Amino acid sequence: MSGVSSRAPSDCHKKKSIFLNHKRTNKEQKNY
User: Fold this and answer.
1) Can you tell me the distance from the alpha carbon of 30 to that of 32, in angstroms, rounded to the nearest whole number?
2) What is the DSSP string of 1-32?
3) Which of 22, 32, 16 lies closest to 8 in space, CA to CA?
4) pLDDT value for 13
């Protein structure tokens, strides 16, 4: 149970990181 608890926040952070990265790449490539 504790393993899942400590893994959940990491997953959330990963998703947020990917989302932010995607947004930044979109801004850099404005030929879209």
Assistant:
1) 5
2) -HHHHHHHHHHHHHHHHHHHHHHHHHHH----
3) 16
4) 75
